[in-house]
Write a structure and sequence with these properties.
By secondary structure, this protein is an alpha+beta fold. The protein has two domains: 37 residues, no CATH class; 35 residues. It has two helices and four strands, in the order ββαββα. The strands form two sheets. It has a two-stranded antiparallel ribbon with strand order 1-2. A two-stranded antiparallel ribbon has the order 3-4. The longest helix has 17 residues. The model has no long low-confidence stretch (mean pLDDT 87).
């Protein structure tokens, strides 16, 4: 892992296969505890950068947000 600048880490490069698949580099999978069968969400906040997030992380954030709203009643 190489630091590009504060807050960003470079894990390597990947090639897109014929079926549109990529392999997430091993160091990234280990760092983010990504295992076979995990669901990942892919999104972009602009036209040039994709972000990949584990679905269970998004789910836990959403639950905490809903609990906060429920507790304000």
């Amino acid at each position: 892992m190489d630091k590009l600048y504060e807050g960003n880490t470079f894990y390597g490069t990947v090639k897109v296969g014929e079926r549109g698949q990529i392999v997430i580099p091993k160091k990234a999978r280990e760092h983010y505890d990504i295992k076979a069968g995990d669901s990942l969400m892919i999104y972009s906040d602009n036209d040039r950068i994709f972000k990949i997030v584990k679905e269970d992380l998004i789910r836990s954030i959403a639950i905490k947000m809903l609990e906060t709203v429920d507790n304000k009643d």
